[in-house]
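S1.2 Input.
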Amino acid sequence: MLSLVTVPMSLSASVNLQVDIPWDFEQIEADSKLLAQHKNILDLEWNDPASPASYATFILVNLADVHSTHKAMQFSCLEEGNPLLPKRPHLDRLLAHKVVVLYPTIHPKFNRYVLTDEDFFWPNVFIAAISYNNYRLIRKAKKYEGRGECPRL
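S1.3 Output.
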């Protein structure tokens, strides 16, 4: 029994795990200069993913666009300005258009780019401005409709 313990101990005792390699400071300095030259090649930026608030705002302004467009279609003097839609789209067409166009843009299965809060800023501003204009045109059309006329606005 004693030989079973002593044999592995004697084998491990003969292995020298120390390596005696002198430091080559000149090589270290040359390597650091090479790394400094190529630092910009591997300069990776970390992009924080968009916050839930950015996604929520994006969804809300798009819903406001669909709502305002749908309400505007109740007036004969108003037409849809989006060239990808008919002049008088129905609600189902508006929703389908938003889903087909926007879902692949923001879903990670289709879009490998990490969306950030900055990526959502200008689309949110643009769509909010469109929605605001739609509601402004609806107020204008209601005013004309009350007088019995609705000129093309």
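S1.4 Remarks. The first helix runs from residue 2 to 13.
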